[in-house]
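#lab-general

N.A. 3:47 PM
ok so I finally got the sequence cleaned up, no stray characters, all 465 residues accounted for. can someone with queue access submit it? mine expired

B.Y. 3:52 PM
send it over

N.A. 3:53 PM
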Amino acid sequence: MGVTGYAWAAMQGLVNGLTTQDVIEGAEGEKPADGARDILLVGLDSRTDAQGNPLSQDVLDELRAGESDGELNTDTLILVHIPNDGSKAVAISMPRDSYVDIPGGYGKHKINSAYARALTSTRKELQKQGVTDPKEVDQKANQAGAKTLIQTIEKLTGSHIDNYAAVNLLGFSDITKAIGGVDVCLNNDVKDQFSGANFTKGEHTISGVEALEFVRQRHGLPRGDLDRVVRQQVFMASMAKKVISAGTLADPGKLSDLAEAVKKSVVLNQGWDIIGFAQQMKGLTGGQLEFKTIPVVDMDFKTPEDGSAIQVDPRAVKEFIQGTTGQAAPSEQSKPDANNKAITVDVRNGTGKSGLAASVLQSLTAEHGFTSGDAANSTARKTTVIRVPKGQKPAGETVADALGGKPTVEEDKTVSAGHVLVLLGTDYSGQGATETAAQGAAQPESPAPPPDDKTITANGVTCVN
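B.Y. 4:20 PM
back already:
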């Protein structure tokens, strides 16, 4: 009774001390509308704690945080799908360099930049408006970053995010210390100067800085970033096993340390009933927690602005998510804006890429509900432009938002009433571009490595690259 009472008091203290953000649209109900809970877990490469206080240089040096240019990237992205009875869960990783469309007119970029792009633009806008309180600016900018990241994940996966949890570098380190370390296993010796990972073949119990080095290494691995994703998965599986089977939550000392680590480093969405969620998950066993990774097309996809990225096919990702979680097909979950049907879109391809005009037009009609005009090739051009009849710029802006990348909208008296003309230039990388590239890459120069055939669960320790 004493242990149970202490655990309950500690849990209440944890909940009362958590940092939360208003990042999920709508109030949290007793259970998600679709009969399952989808949680977005984010590893934020941040140099601050959950309350926005900068980490000291000594702490940054200990964590091997490196230069500050990556401080806003979300380098770990995992969608956790849990049925309402809490009896099982599947965690689906998305590689940080996945090249996707970022809602809000940001265009196509690496998925780990979604948070930073929205944060930076919101911060500039607030400062332009005359907001001078640094805490207010940071709070609203971070909130905008999280919301845009959530929207990006929802658009890619077709899932509705019910809950959000983000942890920073310091928190990850401290949480592993609080539970007494995590068991991992490697197939071979590794020594990587970039992450600092230096481990021998076989099993290890790691925590703190060593844990960060283990999950952050990607250089020198056979499958690059995909092996890094697997590292993160086996680490989280082993951490879950430790908490589920080792009585961590019944140990007053470990529970107190864990609560303190979580309070200073984890941010959750407002309205998440953590105690109720814990009760819902009490029947979960290690074998009922499984880890997977979304399918990829090309590991070395050349992008117009972002260098080499990981190419993914949004349709294949949605089908994978649906098949893995058993949720409704994305087409059943959302419908295009009915107002878009009044806009007829014509597309002209000036990029030289075969089939791009048809692909873009198909995406605009099928996914956004515009009326299909005609698609054709045109003279070569560098810049993508949208042309509209006089006084019809709002219609052009609507099409521009759907395309992404914020192309310029111009009035042109030669465009027919009710039509919007899209002129694609070589700078175009928005809606429909990835699908065209995937169709034309029957034998890509850098094909995606075969998937790792190991099934990762929280039942045991899986040896990995």
